[in-house]
């Protein structure tokens, strides 16, 4: 199995800083998007701490642990602890926090863990499906039947998150396991994408993209063309069958040494 992935982040048209961060580590099949919050550039600090924790504690491991969900939860707790520790040492960072959506690819499986309103979508057989459920105020109202999804996407309170890293001593991520096969596409994004353009437009931009890189740039352009009111980050991931010479052998990803570049502003890779 080979993994193709690409990620892009952009500060959008309105915000003075980009407080989003992301990780693309195709060598180990680990991907993440974090959307920081907090004044005086503290949001950038929080999202970077979270992404660095994922990089250090998971993306540099040579093998996925036996109990992936428990491991993902521990890593998110550790990222939370590091953000809290930073706030203790730097009181000017008080109130900073971050969302995090994290994907770990196994053979035919993807594990997702998330806190906050950064999302994962699966694109399969021409359809797009949101895999994560936002930890956000408006999504709570949707669940209660008080808002439709359409209303929620335009509600002025749409960026209020109900869970984030950095705000409490303990954080409780949701962990999801999904099948992930060659031909499937996984999208991780910050809310600067899905609050600016509807899911159908996201799907179309991806389908029309000549490559993952092209699709990532199209998504950012669409979000900006629709107002670009927030930082926007997109990471696209797909797997392909092993070339003929390796056909028939089991997936080898657990034996691939780590050579990840870590997070970057604009990065790709093929493992
Ligand atoms: Mn955002």
Question: What is the topological layout?
Answer:
Elements: E1 2-10, E2 20-25, E3 30-37, H1 42-59, H2 68-89, E4 97-98, E5 100-106, E6 109-115, E7 119-124, E8 127-130, H3 137-143, H4 149-154, E9 174-179, E10 185-189, H5 191-194, H6 199-208, H7 212-225, E11 232-240, E12 266-270
Antiparallel strand pairs: 1-11, 1-12, 2-3, 3-4, 3-5, 5-6, 6-9, 7-8, 7-10, 10-11
Helix pairs in contact: 1-2, 6-7
The structure holds manganese (II) ion.
Manganese (II) ion binds near residues 190, 191 and 192.
Describe the structure concisely:
The protein has 271 residues and is of the alpha+beta class. The protein has helices at 42-59, 68-89, 137-143, 149-154, 191-194, 199-208, 212-225, and strands spanning 2-10, 20-25, 30-37, 97-98, 100-106, 109-115, 119-124, 127-130, 174-179, 185-189, 232-240, 266-270. α1 runs antiparallel to α2 (68-89) and α6 packs antiparallel against α7 (212-225).
Structural class: alpha+beta
H/E element order: EEEHHEEEEEHHEEHHHEE
Q: Portion of residues in helices? A: 25-40%
Average pLDDT confidence is: 89
Strand arrangement, largest sheet?
8-7-10-11-1-12
């Amino acid at each position: 199995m080979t993994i193709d992935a690409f990620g892009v982040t952009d500060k959008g048209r309105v915000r003075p800083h980009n407080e989003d961060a992301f990780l693309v580590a195709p060598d180990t099949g680990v991907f993440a998007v974090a959307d920081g919050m907090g004044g005086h550039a503290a949001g950038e600090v929080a999202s970077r701490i979270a992404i660095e924790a994922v990089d250090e504690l998971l993306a540099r491991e040579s093998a996925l642990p036996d109990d992936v969900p428990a491991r993902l939860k521990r890593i998110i707790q550790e990222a939370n602890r590091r953000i809290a520790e930073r706030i203790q040492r730097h009181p000017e960072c008080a109130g900073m926090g971050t969302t995090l959506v994290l994907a770990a690819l196994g053979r035919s499986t993807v594990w997702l863990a998330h806190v906050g309103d950064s999302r994962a979508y699966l694109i399969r057989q021409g359809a797009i499906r949101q895999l994560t459920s936002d930890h956000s105020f408006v999504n709570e109202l949707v669940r209660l039947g008080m808002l439709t999804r359409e209303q929620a996407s335009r509600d002025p309170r749409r960026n209020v998150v109900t869970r984030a890293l950095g705000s409490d001593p303990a954080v409780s991520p949701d962990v999801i396991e999904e099948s992930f096969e060659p031909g499937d596409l996984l999208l991780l994004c910050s809310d600067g994408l899905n609050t600016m353009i509807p899911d159908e437009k996201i799907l179309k931009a991806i389908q029309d993209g000549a490559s993952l890189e092209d699709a990532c740039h199209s998504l950012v352009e669409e979000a900006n063309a629709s107002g670009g009111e927030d930082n926007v980050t997109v990471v696209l991931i797909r797997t392909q069958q092993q070339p003929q010479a390796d056909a028939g052998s089991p997936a080898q990803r657990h034996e691939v040494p780590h050579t990840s570049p870590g997070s970057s502003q604009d990065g790709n890779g093929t493992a």
